[in-house]
Amino acid sequence: MKILVVEDEAKTGEYLCKGLKEAGFVVDLADNGLTGYHLAMTGDYDLVVLDIMLPDVNGWEIVRMLRAAKKGMPVLLLSALGTIEHRVKGLELGADDYLVKPFAFAELLARVRTLLRRGSTVIAESQFQVADLTLFLVSRKVTRGASRITLTSKEFTLLEFFLRHQGEVLPRSLIASQVWDMNFDSDTNAIDVAVKRLRAKIDNDFEPKLIQTVRGVGYVLEVPDED
Ligand code: CA
After folding, report:
1. Which of 109, 124, 139 delimits the end of a domain?
2. Which residues are CB-contacts of 83 (< 8 A; sequence separation ≥ 6)?
3. Which of 41, 69, 90, 224 could disulfide-link to 77, CB 3.0 to 4.6 Å?
4. What percent of the chain has pLDDT over 90?
5. What distance separates the 2 farthest-apart alpha carbons in the chain?
6. pLDDT digits (tens, 9 = 90+) for 47-77
7. 106 and 134 belong to one structural domain
8. How many separate domains does the chain show?
9. Domain identity same for 24 and 113
10. Which one, of 157, 164, 75, 158, lies nearest residue 127 by Cα?
11. How remote is the CA of residue 194 from the centroid of ligand 1, in Å?
């Protein structure tokens, strides 16, 4: 799942991104309000963590504009302003939750997970299934038939990406940019290694094989045609 963090304070922004990435999310950081607003309007985010005090467009204004544009992803406001009036203002403008700085990362993560669980888009697609493989987004569980499969957080993100694009041929460079937030122009070997590890867990001991290699391009996840 993909999260946008809008935070102008470099240290807090990095801390949030690092923690959320470690928790298995794909994270983009915007360090000013305008960039944050544009990313939120155009990107495909499941949730926005939004600082209120930003130098250009503030967080209140961003929530108001997102809701006016019918953007419904959950928004978690972050602010040093902890008075009741501020909290109420945030929620009235359409934010879903409000966390006062300083906060413990564990609390932020718990609130992010709660919001994602509650979000209507997520409920509609809280799990993905192909053949006998199921990925549960919220509990972060993967099963194949009766077997529970243990994945690293990166492998989970990679499998989720494949499942969101079932049947689409995914070039290595796209996988690199969407799952690793990086450009692997030269070194796509890292992608092959990661896919190999994932296959070892979800395909090696099972039939049918779900991840197919598309020579010279990348990979596709689909149930192969029967001969
Ligand atoms: Ca700030």
Report:
1. 124
2. none
3. 90
4. 59
5. 66
6. 999 999 998 999 999 999 998 888 889 999 9
7. no
8. 2
9. yes
10. 164
11. 37
